[in-house]
Amino acid sequence: MKKVFLSLAFLHLAFAGCAQAGLLDRFNANRLHKQKVSMLILGSWAAGNIALGGIAASQTSGEARYFHGMNAGWNLVNLGLATAGYLAATRTDPASLGLFESIEEQHRIQKIFLFNAGLDVGYMAGGAYLMERARRGGGQADRLRGFGKSIILQGAFLFVFDLGAYLWQANGNAELQPLLQGLSFSGQSVGLKWAF
Q1: Where does the chain cross the membrane (predicted)?
Q2: Which carries the bigger pLDDT value, residue 15 or residue 65?
Q3: In whole angstroms, how far apart are CA 15 and each of 101, 117, 131, 183, 193?
Q4: Fewest 10 Å CB contacts: which of 48, 92, 102, 146?
Q5: 72-98 b/e with 16+ CB inside 10 Å = b?
Q6: pLDDT of 66-120, one tens digit each?
Q7: Contact present, 72 and 54 (Cβ < 8 Å)
Q8: Cα radius of gyration (the chain)
């Protein structure tokens, strides 16, 4: 009887482990899909700003030229970040991450988007500062106003983008719940409980 019970317990653990691995793979695939879509959105914004900004900067003068030039320049960085983020998500195998690594990656990407949203507020404040400096007059007024307006626009887009991407990724946190059921943590030990 003891051998039958142990055999049944082993089978249950094996099936539970396979089911958990399937849930974990789906969770990671979903997280990586969200990252790819987010990077495509950022990359599209960047490519559009580079093209439009480059053309408009060459056909305008004064404040408008600085505005469009800054839009193009700013988005060279965005395009690089979007490309790196997309490639990282594409190269990651969802099945290669264990539970701990999956949780770490989920929280890492959320922290990056949330931190960037904070930086975006700083960008907008910096743009507003440049516009205020332009009011003081001087030979740099057009440049300061053009750069300031561009930085406010880029910061506002990035704030909405980063906050939206953070919320979209954080929405996936509920998918971790079934993977963590039965786990318990004390200060010095980890326990796992399976119900039969």
Answers
A1: 37-57, 69-89, 109-130, 151-169
A2: 65
A3: 22, 42, 63, 17, 15
A4: 48
A5: bbbbeebbebbeebbeebeebebeebe
A6: 999 999 999 999 999 999 999 999 999 999 999 889 999 999 999 999 999 999 9
A7: yes
A8: 24
pLDDT of residue 170: 94
The residues that bridge with 185 in the sheet, in sequence order, are 190
Regarding predicted confidence, which is higher, 152 or 190?
A: 152
Sign of the torsion angle spanned by Cα atoms 24, 26, 29, 31: negative
pLDDT of residue 175: 79
Dihedral in degrees, nearest 10, Cα atoms 149, 153, 159, 164? 170
**CA end-to-end span of the chain, whole Å?**
17
Total Cβ atoms within 10 A of residue 171 = 11
